[in-house]
Specification:
There is one protein chain. The protein is mostly helical and 366 residues long. The chain has a single domain, classed as NCX, central ion-binding region (A middle domain of Talin 1). 74% of the residues lie in helices and 1% in strands. The protein contains 13 helices and 2 strands; from the N terminus they run αααααβαααααααβα. A two-stranded antiparallel ribbon has the order 1-2. The longest helix is centred in the middle third of the chain and has 35 residues.
Length: 366
């Protein structure tokens, strides 16, 4: 393994994540000048591209749907760490950070990544084909998790404001984790074929003709470098967040918009990976990434935040506001109408992308 790493140190997909992590170690918790912020941002972009490369290597080795699952879970675990870190150090202004970040992740994945994947697929083949059984099950799980964790707190009466009582939060966390675990078992077990790519006739493509899969040692190295790259992405995103906050304040945008920007940065690896899969006519893999990421963002974040709330001061605001509820409802309805036929056109892609644009615009101008 060490020899393989030494032989690849000149490869940018290896060197950039390692340098990005070193930069993170030297800049963490420090106020950076403009030049330092630019350098960190440049390596942040490089780490995103490297993460996509290593995720594709791992996916090629383990096959689908495991490859999509690896990237979705890896990104979400580190995203959770970022949220908890910011909540611990941010004080009262971070009471709604978990809600804003999770909701932004749901809107970006279910409208942005999904819409972009359909757009690429329909531009290539006019009609994008996918498996409605697996995609529909994933969408149903996302909607259930979102309603349980983000909608119900707005309407419960045990606590004033959009928050759960400790018992309600514990139930939501346990239910979210159990439902996510059940989905993973279904996706990787007896119904694995529901999440495999299909051809234009809806037939599952079990085996593809492509390059020889990488060796186990190379895949293991890429898995490690994927985690390193994702740490660099999230850590460097936090490092440049003061500059983002200053820019948001200078533009007279609400504080919650910072969470949208950081969510966009963190989800870049999945966005690029989904786009590449769609360009290879593997829209199902793109949808696995989109909906799997949304599901992991809720199913793993809420339990982690519930556990962290034991040590956090102040209330934990999880309930969505009126505008957010409308956007989530529109996303759920549009998603169902897109998924049920198993085939989508440019119109469905446009509908999802318009919903994403509406979310970003209303987040900037509530």
């Amino acid at each position: 393994m060490a020899a393989l790493l030494r032989s690849r140190l000149t490869d940018w997909t290896v060197s950039v994540p390692l340098v990005a992590v070193l930069i993170l170690a030297f800049t963490w918790g420090r106020e950076l000048p403009a030049v330092g912020t630019f350098v960190v941002a440049a390596f942040l972009a490089g780490a995103v591209l490297a993460a996509v490369h290593h995720a594709e290597v791992v996916a090629h080795r383990v096959g689908e749907p495991y490859g999509s699952l690896v990237l979705a879970v890896a990104v979400t675990v580190i995203e959770v760490a970022l949220i908890v870190t910011l909540m611990i150090s941010g004080g009262d202004k971070t009471q709604a950070l978990a809600r804003d970040t999770v909701f932004a992740a749901v809107m970006i994945t279910c409208n942005g990544i999904l819409g972009l994947s359909l757009l690429i697929g329909t531009l290539r083949r006019q009609v994008a084909s996918f498996n409605p059984e697996g995609t529909g099950g994933a969408l149903a799980t996302v909607i259930t998790l979102a309603a349980l964790s983000l909608v119900l707190p707005t309407f419960t009466t045990s606590r004033p404001g959009p928050e759960f009582s400790p018992a309600q939060l514990g139930f939501a966390a346990a239910a979210s984790l159990a439902l996510y675990g059940l989905f993973v078992l279904v996706q990787t077990g007896r119904h694995r074929d529901y999440f495999l790519p299909v051809d234009s006739q809806g037939r599952v493509i079990e085996h593809e003709e492509h390059a020889k899969p990488p060796s186990g040692r190379a895949a293991l190295l890429s898995l490690g470098l994927l985690l390193v790259a994702l740490v660099a992405v999230v850590g460097d995103a936090k490092t440049v967040s003061p500059a983002i906050e200053a820019g948001v304040a200078a533009a007279n945008l609400p504080q919650s918009f910072v969470g949208v920007v950081i969510a966009l940065l963190v989800l870049l690896p999945e966005t690029l990976a989904a786009g590449r899969a769609a360009r290879r006519d593997r829209v199902q893999i793109s949808l696995n990434l989109a909906l799997g990421s949304a599901m992991a963002s809720i199913g793993l974040t809420i339990p982690a935040i519930a556990l962290a709330s034991i040590w956090l001061d102040g209330p934990l605001m999880l309930g969505l506001g009126g505008t957010q509820l409308v956007l989530l409802t529109l996303t759920a309805i549009t998603g169902v109408l897109t998924v049920v036929p198993g085939r989508a056109t440019l119109l469905q892609a446009g509908a999802h992308l318009v919903l994403l644009a509406s979310f970003v615009f209303l987040a900037a101008s509530p």
